[in-house]
Write a sequence for this structure.
């Protein structure tokens, strides 16, 4: 039932009391921030575009907080584009953006995977007539500074981010959520992560990779960790690889770490580690770097040293990098589901504000770089 207010307009609000006590008063978080977050959730879940919103007086009475606290929360919601305030007219909800824009926050690194994903997001945005903005995260600039560089209000712009460490992923979510932005993180599962995430099924992908190699007779497999394990997807891959080694009793398989740190060149790390991998006296029959950049680095080393792929060593790529089907030999690899980016974009702009985690299956593409284990 709508509640009658001044002028005979109906105000559709759930219940008679706003339960501020349900979210609690978090230590270290200003009260106006808690009020703003609670009102933002209420707007998105219970109001329609154009609905009249609570007045300052009613919020003060219902929530039991001071006028400065309520006024600051309302002003910040208005700056986000969720409320429109007019002198003598009241406050109204504004949910429909005139122009949709997609922002992408990524580390400023020379990563083929990052660049390929950015291109896919840009193409999908163009097809839907969305604006597209790219924001680089730099090691010499804080997450908070990067978030201040956003071009549009939360009503107009929604955001993807990926390629970051677990710590930076949390910091990005907290900063952007506090500013009212709706976000989706692309990448591996993070326990307890409160935001939306679209990720590839890493566990199933590793299982497909190991099954493919063992069916070809490979036991002496080197899994080359050429990326920081602090990256969620990489950490998950390494954990899944360890489980597969133990479950299949692959006692002659090895995980070799390149001791890579964030912002390091993962292609170079794999290339430079290859001499050590091949000089231990237990020659591998297959090499699987944990990222596509590492596969390219390993392929370069093998080619330079005239080690034939796959006749002497098979090579497997966990990433479907552009050009992997144009080199010789063409790379056997895992490929993303062709609809991953569209599903991510649909989730970013749908009407459901609740955080979700969506796992997308991978596909195995068998090419020329893997063959029967060399005797």
């Amino acid at each position: 039932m709508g509640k009658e207010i001044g002028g005979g307009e109906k105000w559709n609000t759930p219940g008679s009391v706003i339960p501020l006590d349900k979210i609690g008063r978090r230590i270290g978080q200003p009260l106006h921030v808690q009020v703003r977050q609670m009102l933002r959730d209420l707007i998105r879940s219970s109001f329609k575009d154009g609905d009249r919103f609570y007045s300052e007086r009613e919020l003060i009475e219902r929530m039991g907080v001071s006028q400065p606290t309520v006024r600051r929360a309302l002003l910040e919601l208005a700056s986000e584009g969720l409320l429109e305030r007019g002198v003598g007219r009241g406050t109204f909800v504004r949910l429909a953006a005139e122009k949709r824009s997609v922002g992408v926050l990524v580390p400023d690194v020379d990563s083929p995977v990052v660049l390929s994903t950015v291109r896919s997001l840009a193409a999908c945005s163009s097809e839907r007539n969305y604006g597209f903005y790219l924001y680089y995260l730099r090691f010499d600039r804080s997450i908070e500074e990067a978030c201040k560089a956003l071009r549009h209000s939360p009503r107009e712009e929604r955001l993807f981010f990926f390629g970051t460490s677990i710590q930076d992923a949390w910091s990005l979510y907290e900063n952007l959520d506090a500013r009212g932005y709706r976000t989706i993180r692309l990448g591996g599962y993070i326990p307890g992560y409160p935001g939306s995430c679209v990720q590839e099924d890493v566990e199933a992908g590793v299982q497909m990779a190991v099954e493919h190699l063992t069916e070809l007779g490979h036991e002496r497999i080197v899994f080359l960790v050429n990326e920081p394990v602090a990256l969620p997807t990489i950490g998950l891959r390494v954990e899944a690889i360890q489980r597969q080694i133990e479950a299949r009793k692959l006692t002659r398989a090895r995980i070799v770490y390149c001791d890579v740190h964030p912002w390091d060149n993962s292609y170079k790390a794999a290339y430079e580690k290859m001499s050590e991998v091949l000089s231990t006296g237990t020659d591998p029959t297959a090499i699987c770097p944990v990222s596509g950049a590492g596969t390219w680095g390993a392929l370069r080393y093998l080619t330079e040293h005239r080690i034939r792929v796959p006749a002497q060593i098979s090579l497997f790529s966990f990433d479907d990098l552009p050009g992997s089907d144009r080199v010789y030999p063409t790379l056997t690899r895992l490929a993303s589901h062709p609809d991953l980016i569209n599903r991510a974009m649909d989730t970013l702009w749908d009407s459901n504000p609740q955080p979700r985690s969506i796992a997308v299956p991978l596909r195995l593409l068998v090419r020329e770089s893997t063959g029967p284990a060399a005797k």
